[in-house]
Specification:
Elements: E1 6-8, H1 14-24, E2 36-38, E3 49-51, E4 56-62, H2 69-73, E5 82-87, H3 94-101, E6 106-109, H4 115-125, E7 130-133, H5 145-153, E8 158-162, E9 169-170, H6 175-192, E10 204-207, H7 211-214, H8 236-247, E11 251-255, E12 257-258, H9 270-289
Parallel strand pairs: 1-11, 4-5, 4-7, 5-6, 8-11, 9-12
Antiparallel strand pairs: 2-3, 7-10, 8-10
Length: 332
């Protein structure tokens, strides 16, 4: 089984970020709106260059998150291409709050249940060049989106968040979940010849052109109101990573810090969902080993796996993002 190059994106230096932002603001006036000053990989943090910045679609699954949405939306870079809120038929005013805070938000109602189905519906609605996945509970920092985008611009096909390494961490991982994550990551790496340090973290970004490889069903309806298809639950991140690994795409890990949920209680159940992840890993591996079982992913043309074309990734985390995200004449 072919596997793409695997790389690690270091956390940017905070002092350099401030210097770059302060020294670049004056050069923004009078520029063509289709080209904005941004910090690009390989440049000094104080270098401002004119390059098109890709359009970023931010997909946020949410169910009864009205109290958390204001915290999440406040940190989204204001110049992203679009924000897609996938509503899981909330009974509070999640949708109303989202529309009040972000008038252009695109609201999609998922057609089945579960986080996996919500993400599939959100991905299908996205029109940007890049899709970023953000949880609605306030645990993931949308201000880190530019770092994920920088990893993709540096040659990665998929930017995977990790709570390990310099710049990564978590306020939310219990001892049980941390131990389970290590075991699941080791099992995944052994089965798919990868090097993931944090399998179960759901903060990721990828080029939308790779969406067919994920082979996620966003259209099939089920008669049972609580019915789910394969991949509709919390195992969705594992399923995505499996299909990325099987396709040979290039993955870069991006350090990310996870906060605790701000309000409410998570629907995650460590034991039950851990078993679902194990089942997903083993079932999808069996599909590789036994050709008589139909493949779940179309056979892609494997990319050049020369790891030398992706070096260290630098990125900026500027909450205002005026110097990072420009207008949205993105790459095709």
């Amino acid at each position: 089984m072919a596997n793409g190059g695997f790389h690690y994106a270091p956390e940017p230096d905070q002092s350099e970020e401030e210097e770059g932002s302060e020294g670049s603001k004056g050069s923004e006036a009078g520029r063509d709106r289709s080209r904005a000053p941004v910090i690009t990989p390989g440049c000094s943090p104080t270098d401002v260059v004119d390059v098109p910045w890709p359009r970023v679609s931010v997909v946020i699954p949410a169910m009864n998150e009205a109290r958390n949405i204001p915290h999440v939306f406040a940190l989204i870079p204001r110049t992203v291409h679009e924000v897609i809120l996938v509503d899981g038929r909330s009974v509070d005013n999640t949708v109303a709050v989202a529309r009040d805070l972000w008038p252009d938000v695109q609201v999609v109602t998922q057609n089945r249940t579960g986080k996996g189905n919500a993400l599939a519906c959100g991905f299908a609605a996205a029109t940007g060049d890049i899709i970023a996945m953000i949880d609605a509970d306030g645990s993931a920092d949308p201000g880190e989106i530019p770092v994920f985008v920088s990893a993709l611009l540096s040659g990665a096909d998929f930017a995977k968040g990790t709570r390990s390494g310099d710049g990564g961490g978590s306020e939310d991982l219990t001892r049980l979940r941390r131990a389970g994550n290590r075991v699941l990551s080791a099992l995944f790496n052994a089965c798919y010849k990868t090097g993931y340090s944090d399998l179960c973290y759901g903060y990721n970004a990828f080029w939308r052109r790779h969406l067919p490889i994920l082979h996620l069903d966003s259209t099939t309806l089920v008669s049972d109101e609580d019915g789910r298809l394969w991949g509709d639950g919390f195992e969705i991140e594992t399923l995505i990573h499996i299909r990325i690994a099987k396709s040979g795409l290039k993955v870069t890990e991006v350090p990310s810090f996870e906060r605790s949920r701000i309000h409410g209680v998570s629907n995650l159940h460590a034991i039950r969902d851990g078993i679902r992840v194990v089942r997903t890993i083993l079932t999808e591996r069996r599909r590789i080993q036994h050709p008589d079982i139909p493949a779940t992913v179309p056979a892609p043309v494997l990319p050049d796996n020369d790891v030398s074309r992706t070096g260290p990734v630098t990125g900026m985390k500027d909450r205002d993002s005026d110097l990072i995200f420009g207008s949205h004449q993105g790459r095709g």
